Amino acid sequence: MNTLARCFRFRWGSLSAGRTVRILFTALILAVAVCGWNIKPVRADVAPPETPPGTNLVPGSETTQVRMLAETVILDVQMNAPQGSFGQARVAASFTMRNLGSVEERMDVRFPLTFWNGSSDGFGHFPEIADIQVKVDGRTVGTHRITTENPESFYPDQPVPWTAFNVVFPPGEDVQIEVSYTARGYGEYPFVAYRYILETGAGWNGTIGSADLIVRLPYEANPQNVLIGEHTGFSETSAGVEIAGRELRWHYTELEPTWEDNLEVSLVMASAWQTVLKERQALEKNPADGEAWGRLGKIYKEIILYRKGMREDPGGKELYRLSLEAYQTCLELKPDDSLWHTGYADLLWDHYYWEGKFAAPDDFSELFQVVKELERSLELNANNSRARDLLEEISYSVPDVVEWDGEQFVLLILTATPVYTPWFSPTETPTLEPPTPTATVPPATATPAALSQAPTEPPTLVPSSPPAPTTPAEQGTGIPVCGGAAAFVLPLAAVGYWRIHRRDV
Predict the structure, then answer these.
(1) Which of 270, 299, 475, 494 is nearest to 395 (CA)?
(2) What is the fold, at CATH topology level, of the domain defined by 54-268?
(3) Per residue in 296-310, pLDDT tens?
(4) 250 φ, ψ to 5°?
(5) Which of 298, 264, 100 shows the shortest CA–CA distance to 196?
(6) pLDDT tens-digit series, residues 171-224
(7) Domain boundaries, the chain
(8) CATH T-level topology, domain 3-42+271-498
(9) Which residue among 310, 405, 418, 435 has its CA within the 20 to 30 Å range from the CA of 88?
């Protein structure tokens, strides 16, 4: 995956107004980035605001002989979340505690109401859990609020709030503590994350004898709606998960927890997956519903796309295949629908941009299909602004494939033979053979008949190598930081930096 493309490409709508100013500004930003930054792959510009995670109980400040023998934590993800929320889960945590000493211990046990380590949500806010309830040996107990000093140096004057409740631990006896509350997820559509902090359990005596953590979904769990081995940009599902029906499970024994043991789970938002289930059910009733196939392809597309990139986990790759099939079936049933042709082209273009050109840089067949679908879209509706926006993006990203001549789009790839040049060549960029009569897309006011005919088969590739350097200065020792790399990045990323992804087709 190209690092610079991951860092800088996202989408904006039409670039028609003020095109020159924006592109020049983009070029300046990217040139500075290439020359001066140590860039690493990222999938989001900033982390979304986090909500207070679930957290193991914390003993009083004194040394204790009380051990956490066992714990079971269940995060029950809710299908419907409050407006403005990414998702929520009901949390039920049960702890079996035993006093290993010879004398009774009485203490205020604590549970954090916000971030246990005193940090903020990433934006200087400290949201709190509002509905916490506590039971000791099956009886509801009263709680009171306490605060402690903030260990986080960024917020030394911001106290950390806790709910505290008094517990008596007789020697040699088990005490059962239950804590329940509502946890809100955090994320960026269509992905949501939930966390549970285990490391605070290290404050009790010895190890945690056994720990079972369960995330329960309101539908069947699978690698398509649970991201495994994939970082979303703000979360990554903890290793060691087992999927069983609706549940994700982690089990630990004799655990001395550290921050590395804290639970994290990355999911497709319940609202988004509910849409998948709804469209699947509609197609079970009427498999000839072309609109339903298109909507299914669209929601599949949404749940494989990050702001900057595509899912690379097995579930994500399977969803891409399913999205292709859904769009293709839609277009078999509705071949004259301009917008669904555009939606299909958008899926192919995303895949080519993020995956295809790196996996097979000399294969233009996918890009050829993208342009063919957009040509068909505009044959059906010359005023399809979404198709034109996508052609405009392609013309900036790969100018030798689609060109804007000031009045219309020239679909070079449909009538010329691309010549492949390595993407990271410091001396050349991909070019086309001298153009022959080209397919064009007329201005939006023209009629569909104004589109010219074009070949129906993808072009044959002609490998080409860059000329050999003639002097040591031209030879260099690698990819020039401010020369070849910048020349490669600017045309590819210029339009992408500005265009926020459209997910309406």
Answers:
(1) 494
(2) Immunoglobulin-like (2.60.40)
(3) 999 999 999 998 899
(4) -130, 140
(5) 264
(6) 999 999 999 999 999 999 999 999 999 999 999 999 999 999 999 999 999 999
(7) 3-42+271-498, 54-268
(8) 1.25.40
(9) 310
